[in-house]
Amino acid sequence: xxxxxxxxxxxxxxxxxxxxxxxxxxxxxxxxxxxxxxxxxxxxxxxxxxxxxxxxxxxxxxxxxxxxxxxxxxxxxxxxxxxxxxxxxxxxxxxxxxxxxxxxxxxxxxxxxxxxxxxxxxxxxxxxxxxxxxxxxxxxxxxxxxxxxxxxxxxxxxxxxxxxxxxxxxxxxxxxxxxxxxxxxxxxxxxxxxxxxxxxxxxxxxxxxxxxxxxxxxxxxxxxxxxxxxxxxxxxxxxxxxxxxxxxx
Length: 249
Fold this sequence. Notes:
The protein folds into 2 domains: 4-102 and 227-248, Rossmann fold; 113-222, 3-Layer(aba) Sandwich (Rossmann fold). It is α/β, with parallel strands linked by helices. It is built from 8 helices and 11 strands. It is elongated and about 60 Å long. Strands 6-11-10-7-8-9 form a 6-stranded parallel sheet. It starts with a strand and ends with a helix.
């Protein structure tokens, strides 16, 4: 220990890659925060901090007590509360702060997208009798629990306890398939008429979007919050260059 102290707010592939780059550099003490862990956590380089900070005030305390030199918010594009707390806490302490957020998926020819800004708008766009694939995880799907005139397919990283399952939903456990053919077969076998997804960008979750396009399945696409100010990084390599500048300043 004794290098430039960088806190990465993680939970994404970009956060994992940045932690690896900094660890291999050798000039950084890397701290990676994960608010929660699944049963199959991904591997990060550096010191792992779990459980969250207790809001903006708790994060300010952690930044001060740990002597963090710079903070990189590499959380999920839809982690708007954490993003706001991280930015405010860093600015309050005059700690250099960077938002690392991957680009959104662009609409392509053949995509049948209805783009909305909120979960409520997505719910309103579901037609009676539809079979809807909620590609939102367990937490993101909760808002749809009161929709009774549709059938749902919900995929989660960890199993959902039977007492928490909805009577009008089927559940599958696992991560998104990497290949488009497997995702297309899932849509076909489950008779999916509509996919609800968040435009979180990145290559790992895009196969379901491509599968919907080639299967003629319409997509209700939820836009991410606007939390990436000018000068933000879209990839780990750019974030590393920014940290190098801050370290040498």
